[in-house]
Design brief:
This protein is mainly alpha-helical and 700 residues long. The chain has three domains: 282 residues, MetI-like (MetI-like fold), CATH 1.10.3720.10; 74 residues, no CATH class; 199 residues, MetI-like fold (Orthogonal Bundle). Helices cover 80% and strands 0% of the residues. The chain has 33 helices and no strands. Helix 10 packs across helix 11, helix 20 packs antiparallel against helix 21 and helix 26 runs antiparallel to helix 27. It is globular, with a radius of gyration of 28 Å.
Length: 700
């Protein structure tokens, strides 16, 4: 009796990993939905009769609240309007030689002679392009929005540092402030404050506050304990220790927050122009885009780009730690000399205004000749229209349409020149199964599931995928990547989008952002690898990435709209221009900072350069690369509302339409939907990076 039992115990058993069991059930559900979707169309198209009236309910509450509190907010608007107009009058009153002298002195103090030369050249371009008064109006908005954001962000950061229990709620609020499109919270601001520059000021201040909060908390958290203990041992009171010990120690990190806050406020100038801003540079860009005056839009857009780069370099220069060794420019431009130069600039301004009370600006030569620039650009677009049309049609028919309606919908005689036959469908299924089997053998079951999901989405398209499959699949993936709480968050978020009737807009957003992120990873990743291996390429790409990263989002629409007209491809190009910088920089940074001894060990084992890159450097740099993926997704989602201006029908368009109708309910729901996607993607990538091992998963 013992021998059979022993043989039974020693017989091999097929172990089923518990993590696979939900996926088996999901595969069965997917197959069932695909079989039944022809008989039950509601599996793909959610019926309008099933939607819930959340937006009207929000509008009802909003109307009631606004009626009560609107007088107080209108009074606040009047209070803020006076200093804003006063700052604009002062900046416009200042003569341009005095402004150039003051900015050059600040640039010399911040980063040296090179930045001072760039500052003078940038201001000279603004002057001779004919946009000096508009630029001063823009700076007046920034100069008022930044102090509000800095003060509010500082105290919220202090609160988050001193009260750890409040930090989760504060971080959640910051996530919403940074991910909800500005158009969404413009609607309640318009209802409360009315149209005018003050609404743009408040919107800019709200949008620019989170970086200061995060950097204040980070700086205070990183104050070394020995410095705090030294302050206590010196007899400091709690207030003295905070202001004289902790704040000075955290000041460099806070100055980084000041830099990011300033850039965020400057990026809102065009949004402020949409909601009633005065005559500033944002209004110039917006009006020229509406008139299709591409020459003028490029000239005015370049002004915003130059201002953004100049402000970025000035603020980051003051935030950067000073070198310990002697530096000529830094040593020469002392604080006393800087004060002297600023005093001379003020004296020069008064003298010029006394001698020449009437505004004297050089003739805007570039702006006077903008008609010729417009004609030249229109001629260029007309002469090479065949080339740009071929590019647009190739991407549209080979990438955008298949991803949106699937191969089953794109493979028609009208689009691809042939119809998808049953043998072709069987061959496609066999190919996907083969790829999944190979992925399971090489990388494990997770790669196989990913291959099956990609093959299914490519065949049915985002629009043809049953919504129960999509929601449950993402929720299951989120739960296994980052925990059950994130899975429930995904399930609740997608369900709310579904019952609010925004599922088609969600699908449009997802397929457009998915394609943009994939292309950015491929192109940007390749450029990042190239830059990691070539210092010359790195030096060439650095100023390009700096310019792309500092330009306001609206500026990216100008070249895309000029060459490719209105449509989804134009939106794709604009999203990619804004989102391609993170993969370039993070891939280069990750590869350049791989441990040298590990690379040398791999090379001594006889690995080729390709093997060293693919099997050593990239796996070790993967956490950094995944952070780049996170930032790419965030950038792509943040461009949805901007891309809505060129003809997309996604969640961004829903926000923009709601703004035009003053529909606070729909604007809030659509804006929160975009924020939900951003937060979900952020948490999933963070969870994947946190639980990722550096060795391939082979069946684990």
């Amino acid at each position: 009796m013992t021998a059979p039992a022993a043989s039974f115990r020693s017989s091999p058993r097929v172990a089923i990993e518990p993590a696979l069991l939900p996926w088996y059930a999901f595969i069965v559900l997917t197959a069932l939905c695909l079989v039944l979707k022809a008989d039950f169309p509601w599996l793909v198209t959610f019926p309008k009769e099933w939607t819930l009236p959340f937006a009207p309910a929000i509008n009802l509450v909003t109307d009631t609240v606004v009626t009560v509190v609107q007088p107080a907010f209108r009074a606040l608007s009047a209070v803020l309007d006076a200093p804003m107009r006063g700052a604009r009058l002062v900046l416009v009153w200042l003569p341009w030689p005095a402004v150039m002298l003051a900015v050059a002195a600040l640039a010399l103090k911040s980063s040296g002679i090179r930045l001072a030369v760039f500052a003078v050249l940038a201001l000279a371009y603004i002057l001779f392009a004919g946009y000096w008064p508009q630029s001063m109006s823009t700076l007046s908005l920034v100069l008022l929005a930044v102090p509000i954001s800095v003060v509010l962000g500082f105290w919220l950061g202090v609160l988050g540092h001193g009260r750890p229990g409040l930090r989760p709620a504060l971080l959640g609020a910051l996530d919403l402030m940074q991910t909800v499109p500005a158009f969404a919270y413009l609607i309640p601001l318009l209802l409360l404050f009315g149209f005018g520059p003050v609404v743009g000021l408040i919107a800019s201040a709200i949008y620019a506050t989170p970086p200061m909060v995060r950097n204040t908390m980070l700086g205070l958290d990183r104050v070394p304990s020995d410095i705090s203990e030294a302050g206590l041992m010196s007899g400091c009171t709690r207030r003295q220790q905070f202001w004289q010990v902790e704040v000075p120690t955290a000041l460099p990190q806070m100055l980084v927050g000041f830099n990011q806050t300033t850039m965020a406020a400057l990026s809102m100038v065009i949004v402020a122009a949409i909601i009633g801003g005065f005559e500033d540079i944002g209004w110039e860009v917006l009006s020229s885009m509406r008139k299709a005056e591409f020459g003028q839009s490029i000239l005015s857009g370049l002004v915003i780009a130059l201002l953004a780069i100049l402000v970025d370099r000035l603020t980051i220069g003051f935030a950067r730690e000073r070198p310990t060794g002697p530096t000529a420019a830094m040593t020469w431009m002392t604080g006393r000399r800087l004060a002297m130069f600023l005093f001379l600039a003020a004296v020069l301004a008064i003298a010029i205004r006394v001698l020449w009370p009437v505004e004297t600006l050089p003739a805007g030569g570039l702006r006077m000749q903008v008609g010729g620039v417009n004609q030249w650009l229109l001629g260029l677009v007309r002469d090479y229209a065949w080339f740009f049309d071929d590019i647009r049609n190739s991407v549209l028919y080979c990438l955008l349409l298949p991803l949106r309606i699937g191969i089953s919908g794109a493979a028609t005689p009208a689009l691809w020149g042939f119809a998808l036959s049953p043998p072709m469908t069987a061959g496609y299924c066999a190919l996907i199964l083969g790829v999944a089997a190979l992925s399971a053998h090489r990388f494990g079951w997770r790669a196989a599931v990913a291959a099956l999901a990609a093959g299914l989405v490519l065949f049915t398209g985002f629009l043809g995928l049953p919504w129960p499959v999509f929601i449950l699949g993402i929720a299951l993936l989120a739960a296994q990547v980052a925990g059950i709480r994130l899975g429930l968050f995904a399930l609740a978020g997608f369900t709310l989008i579904l019952v609010n009737g925004l599922w088609p807009q969600l699908i449009q957003s997802l397929y457009l952002c998915t394609l943009a992120v994939l292309l950015c990873l491929i192109i940007g990743g390749a450029l990042g690898v190239w830059a990691a291996y070539s210092d010359r390429v790195s030096r060439i790409l650095k100023p390009i990435c700096d310019a792309l990263q500092t330009m306001p989002q609206f500026v990216f629409l100008i070249p895309a709209l000029m060459f490719f007209k209105v449509g989804e491809f134009t939106a794709l190009i604009a999203i990619m221009l804004y989102a391609i910088v993170p993969p370039i920089r993070y891939v280069e940074h990750g590869l350049r900072h791989v441990r040298v001894d590990v690379v040398e060990a791999v090379e001594q084992m006889g690995a080729t350069p390709a093997q060293t890159l693919l099997q050593a450097k990239l796996p070790l740099a993967l956490p950094v690369v995944m952070l780049g993926l996170n930032q790419t997704i965030m950038a792509a989602l943040s461009m949805l509302a901007i891309a809505a201006l060129v003809g997309t029908r996604d969640l961004g368009q829903a926000v923009y339409v709601a703004l035009g109708k003053a529909d606070a309910g729909m604007g809030l729901i659509a804006g929160l939907s975009i924020a939900f996607l951003a937060i979900l993607a952020d948490r999933m990538v963070a969870g994947w990076v946190g639980g990722r091992t550096l060795v391939p998963d082979r069946g684990a």
